[in-house]
Design goal:
This protein has 178 residues and is α+β, with helices and mostly antiparallel strands. Helix content is 20%, strand content 35%.
Amino acid sequence: MKFIMFFFLAILLNTSILNAQGKSNPPETVTYVDINRYAGLWYEIAKIPNRFQRHCVEGTTAQYNLREDGRISVLNSCIEADGSRDEADGVAKIVDKKSNAKLKVSFFSILGIRPFWGDYWIIGLDEDYQYAVIGTSNRKYGWILSRSPELSEAHLDEAFSILVKQGYNPDDFEMTKH
């Protein structure tokens, strides 16, 4: 079942990428991301609901670890309605080496080949790396991440302000339970 879910996720992300190519006004990424500081555990605070996370009811996290080949290991995790933990292993690659703010992520591999990659753009980042705002080129997906399961009201307001400036509708986001 998970294989089927990841297959559809890969198709969905690839379709989003193709659809975004015609967009004339994509979100702007942050100027620079120190990948060493960015690596580690992040808690999902809010997201635009999507098909590939619909089984997640709480406790969603993302763990990023730097690899020797320059890519980033990604382990997404959440709690499902029955209380079980679901995990998705993926890999990210930096596509804008000047800023490190545009990445592509893949959770689907066939015989070691990753045919589908989705946007992962860092469009907001706290100067102390305490929260991050993630978007995609077509604004179909978005997340607010934090280093802790709860984000202060001030930081949450800042994150939503970034989303508004980037052309997102904050009403499209739902809060994640932890």
